[in-house]
Amino acid sequence: MKMIVAIVQNADRDNLSSALSEAQVSHTRLNTTGGFLRAGNTTLVIGIEDDQVQRVLGIIEKACKERETLHRPGHGALHADAYAAPAKVLVGGATIFVLSLDQFRKI
Ligand code: 2BA
Fold it and tell me: Which CATH number characterizes residue 58's domain?
């Protein structure tokens, strides 16, 4: 059994959630905030059998796009110069952790 933790952009979360549901993949959506941009993103928690991991990673890859966003100085991690120009930052498709689980139980 594995747990996939996938951090995705809010713009992709509904498409991804629908695709996972269509594929009958149970998942939980958490509202989260990126530490660098300090903007909202979504973290999905997915408990899955080992042999389904690649299928789920494929669904995530298909639904999540890379996007350029502006990091505005004064917001987030960079506070050095309030007059500095916004910097372009590439975000996504998804940041994914695949963890081995000792147990998976529903009580
Ligand atoms: P944020 O922390 O808000 O980061 C947004 C984007 O800013 C990142 O996109 C990356 O392109 C850039 N970035 C992050 N930290 C940076 C730094 N110290 N210097 C320069 N640029 C930096 P992604 O890599 O696609 O990450 C998207 C979101 O995934 C992150 O949002 C964070 O919530 C999560 N994430 C990424 N790597 C992680 C990690 N190793 N552990 C936990 N969460 C992670």
Answer: 3.30.70.120
pLDDT tens digits, 24-59: 999 999 999 999 999 999 999 999 999 999 999 999
Identify which of 95, 96, 98, 99 to mutate to test ligand 1's pocket (most ligand atoms within 8 A of the CB).
Answer: 95
Residue nearest to atom 12 of ligand 1 (CA): 89
Query: What residue ranges line ligand 1, CB within 6 angstroms?
Result: 7, 34-37, 39, 41, 89-92, 95
Residue 105 is assigned to a structural domain of this protein: no
Phi, psi dihedrals of residue 36, rounded to the nearest 5°: -85, -55
